Protein: ABC transporter ATP-binding protein
Amino acid sequence: MIEIKNVTKSFSSRRTIDHLNLTIPHGKIVGFLGPNGAGKSTTIKMMTGILPIDEGTITLNGYDIEKQPMEAKKTFGLVPDHPDMFLRLKGMEYLNFIGDIFNIPSDIRKERIERVTKQFSIYTALNDYIQTYSHGMRQKIIVTGVLLHDPPIWILDEPLTGLDPKSSYLLKEMLREHAEKGNTVFFSSHGLEVVEQLVDEVAIINHGKLLFYGTLQELREQNPSNDSLEEVFLEMTNDA
Ligand SMILES: Nc1ncnc2c1ncn2[C@@H]1O[C@H](COP(=O)(O)OP(=O)(O)OP(=O)(O)O)[C@@H](O)[C@H]1O
Structure:
């Protein structure tokens, strides 16, 4: 479970996140929607301890990300929007680094790395430098790292951008399976079709404020005059 309580964040006195309250429960896939600049990545960066919070608190499975960062960080895996990290490591070195940090026994490590990287078709690239990987391959190596330590909470910032259809399908299956086991999956997306296929609930923000949180069914019931999720979304986030 992720609990965001009254969180505010400003950049150079411009308020980007404005008293945001949101609880992401166990056992659900929650999609995080909002137009460009709405504050999705900023929220995810505060959730994961990358950016400090100005006001309010964020807890992950009960651990405060600012007061108990070590405990909180053990409970989640993050797939960031720009997967351009550890470029000077080879794929296998990166995965072993993750395995060492999270004390994953070598037999489990070997089995998970082999299984997931073969599914993602990056097994044969594990001895290449991440620098040489495409955007999609970089995403896949980070997702493999998350699956390697298998934390209860998965947080993903636009995870499907740049993935080929097979990998995108596979990742969606993995997200569903993770939530079905009672875990928490929270991902931001601009792909409304993906959201419609995958999520149990959606959170919609604009200008750092929560506009809606609930199921797609509830969203439709609240907006009966619009036929599609696209129309609901456009009307809800229309600034004109
Ligand atoms: N480090 C920063 N310094 C100054 N302003 C920032 C910083 N990070 C984000 N912002 C601003 O905060 C606002 C929200 O940005 P954010 O990246 O959270 O939006 P987003 O919803 O993820 O957008 P997108 O869908 O385009 O990725 C934007 O106006 C952005 O310019």
About this structure: Residues 38 and 206 are 5 Å apart (CA to CA). The domain at 1-75+155-215 is CATH 3.40.50.300 (Rossmann fold). The chain has a mean pLDDT of 94. The pocket of adenosine-5'-triphosphate is lined by residues 11, 16, 34, 36-42 (CB under 6 Å).
